[in-house]
Design goal:
Blueprint lengths: L3 H15 L4 E6 L5 E3 L4 H4 L3 E8 L2 E7 L2 H8 L19 E6 L4 E6 L9 E7 L3 E6 L5 E5 L8 H5 L9 H9 L5 H6 L9 H10 L13 H20 L40 E5 L2 E5 L6
Parallel strand pairs: 2-9
Antiparallel strand pairs: 1-7, 3-4, 4-5, 5-9, 6-8, 7-8, 10-11
Helix pairs in contact: 1-8, 5-8, 7-8
The chain binds a DNA duplex through loops.
Length: about 300
DNA sequence: GTGGCCCTGTGA
DNA sequence: TCACAGGGCCAC
């Protein structure tokens, strides 16, 4: 469920709670939740949280390990750091990369708080504990050195950030796809951060049928879509994301953007613009809701 | 391209 | 009781 605006909101609300703190212990309650970098676990002890940020739908925590542990890390680094520096990563020796998938959440609880039913990993900090909770257990954490990102295929395939790219760039990438425009939006190699909610909502606002073949849409329509997508993402970030059921930010607050939905989750309801009944279909394996009258 | 899978909780 | 929610991945 967390898409770009939700992960961005989580990063913003988590950052002030953990930045500058040190990790004392890490408790992995569900082994598969730590999907990569188990061998780095000892290096986390004493590491300082340098920054919290987002790339695509991935929440990242930049860490600075202790001098002693840095020396330990050097043994596992790739020779001479010969890989190109990733422009999406700040200069940190170590990262935690979380994918929240549908139900991943973060909490900072008082020290010594016991795990909850869905707690998967607990990071003990100077002041309190960072809980990574996940009901459906699809989410994961990876402990990564910078060079590990070069071999993480998912990361390498990610397209541009929708709020950094220009509308023209986004329009061009979308128009190059031979799939439905909905599938093109959901494809993280085209543009990152878009999930089912913001795909449907941006298509509605651009008045484009979700099943249109992307490559057949006029450039003007693609440009409108790109602009609609940017506006909708910015508005959703301002409103701290959309809370359907599980999503909360790192302070436990719900978002408000779900009040602005025109189509998502509104199958058979009257269109808020024209009054026609909204229809639904399946595209790219996802329930898709649209207005057959407004969207051509 | 589509469908199944990973999962649990919710709502009809 | 069972369909449904869905990001990413995999087999087909």
């Amino acid at each position: 469920m967390p898409e770009l605006p939700e992960v961005e909101t989580i990063a913003r609300t988590l950052s002030p709670q953990v930045q500058g703190q040190h990790i004392h212990t890490v408790e992995v309650l569900l082994p598969k939740a730590l999907a990569f970098g188990k061998e780095y676990l000892p290096v986390l002890r004493g590491a300082r949280v340098q920054c919290v940020f987002r790339r695509a739908k991935v929440l990242l925590v930049g860490l600075v390990p202790t001098q002693e542990n840095l020396a330990l890390l050097a043994h596992t680094a790739s020779p001479a750091d010969s890989f190109p520096r990733d422009p999406h990563l700040p200069d940190c020796p170590l990262f935690l990369a979380f994918h929240l998938k549908m139900t991943g959440r973060f909490f900072v609880h008082p020290a010594q708080s016991p795990p909850l039913k869905h707690t998967r990993i607990i990071f003990t900090l100077d002041d309190g504990s960072l809980f990574f909770d996940d009901i459906r257990t699809f989410g994961y954490c990876r402990i990564m050195q910078p060079h590990d990102f070069t071999t993480w295929e998912f990361w390498q395939r990610l397209g541009p950030e929708p709020l950094t790219a220009t509308p023209a760039q986004l329009a061009e990438r979308l128009g190059a796809k031979k799939t439905s425009i909905k599938a093109a939006l959901l494809d993280q190699s085209t543009v990152v951060g878009v999930g089912n909610i913001y795909a449907d909502e941006s298509l509605f606002r651009a008045r484009i049928r979700p099943d249109s073949r992307a490559s057949t849409l006029p450039h003007k329509k693609l440009l409108e879509l790109a602009k609609a997508l940017q506006e909708i993402l910015m508005q959703a970030i301002r409103e701290c994301g959309s809370s359907i059921r599980d999503y909360r930010d790192a302070q436990g607050n719900a978002g408000a953007f779900q009040n602005n939905f025109f189509v998502y989750g509104q199958k058979n309801a009257p269109c808020k613009v024209c009054g026609h009944a909204l229809e639904s279909c399946t595209l790219a394996g996802r329930t898709t809701v649209f207005c057959p009258h407004c969207q051509k």
